[in-house]
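Quick one - first record:
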Amino acid sequence: MTTFDRSTDTLPAWMQRTLRGPDWGALISLAFSLIAAWSFIAQPALPAGGTAEAHVYRAAEYAYAIREGRLYPRWSATAQGGYGAPIPHYVAPGAAYPPALIDTLLIDNSLVAVRITFVGALLIAGAAVYAFTRRRVGALAGVIAALLYLYSPYVGLTTPYINGDLPAAISHALLPLLLLSADRLLRNDHPLDFVYVALLAAYALLTDPRAAALAIGMTLLFALWSQTQSAAHRWRALLAALLIGVGVSACFWLPAMIEADAVLWQHDFPLTQHALRWFDLLAPPQALDPAALTPQAQYGIGWAVIACAAVAIPMIIHTRDSLRGVFLLIALALSALAISTDRVWLLGGAALSWAVVGSGVINW
């Protein structure tokens, strides 16, 4: 009697993907991402008190320029009471382009376009963290990491809702996307992965150069950990892709650096900087005061992330989990650096690193 192998391991890769069922982890992560972004969907206006309104004006200016055929405006004609100012020349344009394109091509409404961009950033952030963690340590750990990252106070509350910081919200999505693309390039060596890394690095630099430098640094540290598992030519391909991304984004950062002394920016209000403390990183999220004109920003990683990480660390040491060990070192370094220098933008990378570490709680 002839026997047939019913295992799918012998089938080609494309047939295995066809026979594979739905990725429930991805669906769960997207569902919770949608919950995190629900206020942008349900409310007709943007949260008050942050800089979201300024991003609406920037999106409207870029949409107007695109309609006129100017794909990269360098001058803001409506600034300074109509006298104009070279704001687009010195401010990264990446955050203004997605809502401007949505406004121009689809809905003709800059306010709704900015809300859609915030929703898209949160959805992509959750999906990218899940996909990156799943590739290395499994689907359940990916779901936990996505939830810990999205629902940390700084990533899920302060950045989109209190500060209305659209560049930071997009950067929080680009960071795990860049790590995911770098991981795919190091393990698969597909030409499209090379293109993805280069484009993501370029777009990150065009959105928020500080956050982009952090994302590229974390990607290089992750690649350094992966070099024992990847061929040398893939490591060189990753470096080449990152350098190409830096070169593509030079249309913004190179003229801005060369002509940095050409203008003098004056502020009508004192620029204050939040003083970070270790207690801020560990404090649970506080309920917002509905009567407050300006809600209090909460610059913290979140007690859930820290609790999961504290439980996971003994198991990481016991099992010698090198991946989470690397991210633990990155999380400690970024947290200490953010507190010592009061650089709140470092908290995005710290939150992602702590989330990956906290996903190790499933090892118990």
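second record:
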Amino acid sequence: MITRDIISTMIKWAAKPSRKPLVIRGARQVGKTTLVAQFSHQFDQYIYLNLELPDDSQAFLDFKNMDTLIQSIFFIKNKVHSKKKKTLIFIDEIQEVPKALNLLRYFYEQAPELYVIAAGSLLETLFSQNVSFPVGRLEFLVVRPVSFSEFLAATGEHAALQAMRNIPLPEFANEKLFALFNIYTLIGGMPEIVDHYATHKDLTSLKPIYESLIVSYIDDVEKYAANATQVQLFRHVIKASFAEAGKRIKFQGFGKSNYRSREMGEVLRNLQKAFLLYLVYPTTGAELPLQPDSRKSPRLQVLDTGMLNYFLGIQKELLWATDLNKVYQGTVIEHIVGQELLAIDHSVLNQLNFWIREKKESSAEVDYLYLFEGKVIPVEVKSGSAGKLRSLHLFMDLAPHNMAIRFYAGEISITEVNTLAGKKYFLLNLPYFLVSQIEYYLTWFKNKINEK
């Protein structure tokens, strides 16, 4: 079973004196139910309710008052309601009874001794419907695909995981971590895939699982679509998104279609609500606050890089690659870096950012932006020498600081760089398997600069 880093965040939630019900969001099949089952080991009692089942949903459908609801829940699950027992209640597939979402507020107000978590595979569709929503009385966490550190733990690579968490990384660990990261990049972070690989260590046996995952997402579109025409739109977008991932897209004619911008934009935004993809809009500023410009073309990030690789048929190239930047024009390594940056923070507000300058004589683009101690740190995913990072130089000319990061297929180093305009800054070069450690390395980097 995969041990998820998010459990530590959930433990902190449970320890809060004024704890609110926790709503877990995320795409289908990213392991929300399994995650809560693991977390339940922290409690004396665990009550699991699946509102797709009539027996579990009836108490919410017949709601009269909170006392009766709580008594019904404990009765049907043959549990004892006692303040002496630390009880976790997990309400799964809550979208099946929309008014149950509003009832969560009463757990917070009238039954604070209970620990309540809710989730739903299509929960995000409720937020755009006329559903009463208890604003300010819930907390949220997002579950995303398995991160590289979780992959290492799941596959028993504990020494590699420990080495990766040492700041700075010992040089002897580089080669093995690059090899492991190649496998992680190849298979991605869908829990079923990672669990199967961890058990069997057989890449060839993963094909039917990828097929099942992709088909299940395509077959799910009826639940998102308002009519038969939208069903076709959703199917087209899910298939086309793999080929367009990592690129800046236009809604008009998306995926080589004849669909119009308005209808395509609506479908893409709905799939973003369901965490199946992300529309990453660029920013043009180098300081806080970051203001993504929704008038410009967004870059497309899909749920999981492993599914992207499978759909595109590039898995063999990745398996033997010595530099992932040289596979599929660098799109795959940029995409997995984005996936790792998203996995760092389980907040609903966590999002990817990138920078552009669009001028006829000199356009530029920086792959990602990372916020650190009030600074907007540019992050490039590139091969080659620092002198070739022209877009990074242009960004640093605007930035009110002197720190930048490059992820690449090399060892840890710090180089002093001068922009064409003559500004000196420091570039932290990190192996691309260290994305999850970016916060710790920025602190280390800052201290190293101060020593100079």
